[in-house]
Amino acid sequence: MMTPMLMTALALALLAGPLGCFVVWRRMAYFGDGLAHSALLGVAVGLIAGMSNQIGMILAAVLFAVMLLWLRTQRLLATDTLLGILAHAALSFGVVAMALLGFEDAEVHDYLLGSLDNVSADSLVYVVLGCGLALGLLMRLWPGLLLMTTSEELAHAEGVPVRVYEFLLMLLLGIVVAGAVQIVGILLITSLLIIPASTARLIARQPETMAIGGSVMAALGMLGGLPVSEALNVPLGPAIVTLTVAMFLMVLSARLLAERLNLIN
After folding, report:
1. Nearest 5 degrees, angle CA 165-CA 166-CA 169?
2. Which residues of 129-141 are buried (b: 16+ CB within 10 A; e: fewer)?
3. pLDDT value at position 56?
4. Quick count: other Cβ atoms within 10 Å of Cβ 85?
5. What domains are there in the chain, each with its CATH number?
């Protein structure tokens, strides 16, 4: 039981680090929440279609991203408003669908907050393979994504297909959501992307260093959260997030202290 969990956690942490950097740089936290909210609907779609939960969640994430991009082109509402509508609609539809499929409240609760019982050897194959392919694609797109994050106008001038890259970034985020929902939970998945990357940003001087640091912080939080969850008998997701927040506060305190000492000296 623990071997699939550990391998899943490491694979997700390796991908969550660099992707979390783009979430922080491009201020996509609200979009991450929206994708997470669509995950429960993806689980229902997977059950109805007879496919794995991970594939169902990725399909739901793709649909969410396509809907958002299309609605943005209509210029009827602000992006944050569209995100709010889509996120709450997806979560509501997901809860209703799960209820109609006969899921108990406790099972839905596990998806919302994460559970050790959600990770199996079967899901490990999908998660590790998906994370490996996603990481390879992210490395291929890295220069263009960095340029696009710095300046979309410059990216256009250099021939970077910005809209395609933007969609692929959303797809990669959907893969992380699909894999990590079973561990961290729908309500807390965005924290796995934001907090480790933000912690690494406090000490990193280069984008690549921040990406690696984010992966390390995510791995420490996830691996440390497993024994804490079992020892204290608390949901796995909150245990992981609590540890990542603690690491963020420690690094922030050390950074502020170092800056204060430099000012004094």
Report:
1. 85
2. ebbeebbeebeeb
3. 86
4. 15
5. 2-188 (1.10.3470.10)
Sequence-ordered alpha helix ranges (H) in 101-206: 105-113, 121-150, 152-157, 162-184, 189-201
CA distance 3 to 181: 18
Q: Tell me the CA end-to-end span of the chain in Å, nearest whole number.
A: 53
**Do the Cβ atoms of 65 and 171 come closer than 8 Å?**
yes
Q: How far is CA 100 from CA 85, 89, 250, in A?
A: 22, 16, 45
- pLDDT digits over 81-130, tens only? 888 898 888 888 888 888 888 776 556 777 777 766 666 666 677 778 88
Does residue 165 contact residue 44 with C-beta atoms inside 8 Å?
no
Tokens 């608390």 locate to 234
Two tokens, residue 105:
């409240």
Spatial distance between the Cα atoms of 211 and 231, rounded to a whole number of angstroms: 31
- Furthest CA-CA distance within the chain: 66
Q: Which amino acid, residue 243?
A: L
Q: Residue 163 and residue 237: Cα distance in Å, rounded?
A: 33
- Phi and psi of 27, rounded to 5°? 55, 55
Whole-model pTM: value is 0.84
User: Does the structure show a pLDDT above 80 at 263?
Assistant: no
Question: Can you tell me the distance from the alpha carbon of 32 to that of 193, in angstroms, rounded to the nearest whole number?
Answer: 8
Per-residue pLDDT reduced to its tens digit, 135-173:
999 999 999 999 999 888 888 888 889 889 988 998 888
In the chain, the amino acid numbered 246 is A
Q: Tell me which DSSP letter residue 118 carries.
A: G
Tell me phi and psi for residue 124, to 5 degrees.
-60, -40
Contact call for residues 38 and 61 (beta carbons, < 8 A): yes
Cβ within 8 Å of residue 15, ≥6 positions away: 131, 134, 135, 138, 172, 175, 176, 179, 215
